[in-house]
Amino acid sequence: MNTPNSANHPANSSADTPATPSVNTSDTTAGSSAAAPAAAPVSPETQAALASTAHAPNSPGATHIRSFVHRRGHITQGQLAALERLMGEWSIPYAPRRLDPAAAFGRQAPTVLEIGFGMGETTEKIALARPDDNFLGVEVFNAGVGSLLRRIEDSKIQNLRIIQHDAVEVVRDMIAPDSLAGVHVYFPDPWPKKRHHKRRLLQPAFVSLLASRIAPGGYIHCATDWEDYAVQMLEVLSGEPLLANTADGYAPRPDYRPLTKFETRGLRLGHGVWDLIFKRVA
Ligand SMILES: C[S@@+](CC[C@H](N)C(=O)[O-])C[C@H]1O[C@@H](n2cnc3c(N)ncnc32)[C@H](O)[C@@H]1O
Question: Is 132 a catalytic residue?
Fold first, then answer.
């Protein structure tokens, strides 16, 4: 959906060619329209992150098929500057050990994990609307992380932290069993080609891992605008013994999930959107 380079991204279209990374000086994607410095100073750490592998290949030793291909691509000066300036303040580095949410957020509160926040538009709105919950956003794209960092700063959001890493590894290594109040997965990459379906995030093994991290009574909320992925989600979520559907099939969109611009346009054109909300059973 609102992925950087979404139009020509293989996860969303039939294109197979990786996008060429670039830096744009105009910035209209984040909340603020303030002009970024023409040449934002970039530290060696940021430079290293941006210059790191554009692909996330499945190395022979990899334990799972990646649900994403590019980590970078088009990035604006504003997003780059935000990465440089705000990463240390609002992001938590990936580490193969359990995260202590109370320490990470500086308070004890229900923690909701969002996987693949894209440009962070929905994440920002939900975090502002639910100040009593902690939100942990996981995304791999530099531009998306830069965009959400800007939103955190512009909207003075306190209850949101970011981990820039593959969510499968974050959930496996950093999230304690029975600990999450909720999981949000909104418009995950549809990987429409049949031969790419294996890259879809919501597969039985990952859903089973996710379910094990949700506290009894907690929820997982997914949404998609791809009908065949909706069918797959319903099948996979229904097949997980730790989860129970809160609806008879697809759920109505709850008030806390705002309509995205893309979704509003799609609905006007008669396209469907499917929400699925399952609860973790005891
Ligand atoms: C189609 S976009 C949707 C973004 C956003 N949720 C929205 O509704 O606009 C899917 C996002 O998931 C991210 N993503 C895919 N696989 C991921 C993974 N394994 N870990 C973290 N992020 C991932 C992609 O980088 C992309 O930004």
Answer: no
